[in-house]
Amino acid sequence: KVKLGSSRVIAAAKCGFQASGLELNPWLVWFSRYKAWREGVRRSTSFHISDLWKASFAQYSNVVIFGVPQMLEVKLANELPSSAKVVACRFPFPTWVPESTEGEGIDTVWVYDAKTFRSDQHRKTGKTLLEQKSPPHS
């Protein structure tokens, strides 16, 4: 399963992925649903009106982020399965080491492996992700 911005979901579905789009703007969600129907990939796509901060990423094996990824570093590291891949477009994650980089300038994308960024986070803090999430005991 792939979580993408609504504008890329249809292209991913055409490549054989089961793809989901999360978007705050309800008009973009409805337009995306219509476009998926028109393109013949309605059954391979889903579009949801959702806030990225309130959505769970636990069900996704691949995530593509457009925008400012550093705001989502901890959330993705805590919620994604260890088999997940994350692709950041235009802006790299500042503390993650990419598995690969493609393109140049504004067309650059960085690919990250969850196993790597999870182990890097554990090494830096000395805590597991669950320990980092849990409040301290009194």
CATH topology, what is it called?
Answer: Rossmann fold
Order of helices and strands: EHEHEEHEEEHH
**What structural class results from the helix and strand content?**
alpha/beta
Low-confidence stretches: 128-138
Radius of gyration: 16 Å
Strand segment count: 7
**Approximate helicity band:** 25-40%
- At CATH level 2, the architecture is 3-Layer(aba) Sandwich
DSSP helix count? 5
Largest sheet: 7 strands, mixed
CATH superfamily placement: Vaccinia Virus protein VP39
* Lateral arrangement of strands in the main beta sheet: 3-2-1-4-5-7-6
General form: globular
Name of the top-level CATH class: Alpha Beta
Keywords: Methyltransferase, S-adenosyl-L-methionine, Transferase
GO molecular function: protein-lysine N-methyltransferase activity
Family: Belongs to the ANT/ATPSC lysine N-methyltransferase family.
Structure explained in plain terms:
By secondary structure, the chain is an alpha/beta fold. It has one domain: Rossmann fold. The chain is built from five helices and seven strands; from the N terminus they run βαβαββαβββαα. A seven-stranded mixed sheet has the order 3-2-1-4-5-7-6. It starts with a strand and ends in a 5-residue tail after the last helix.
Q: Characteristics of this structure?
A:
138 residues, alpha/beta, Rossmann fold, 7-stranded mixed beta sheet, 5 helices, 34% helix, disordered C terminus, methyltransferase, protein-lysine N-methyltransferase activity, transferase, SAM-dependent_MTases_sf
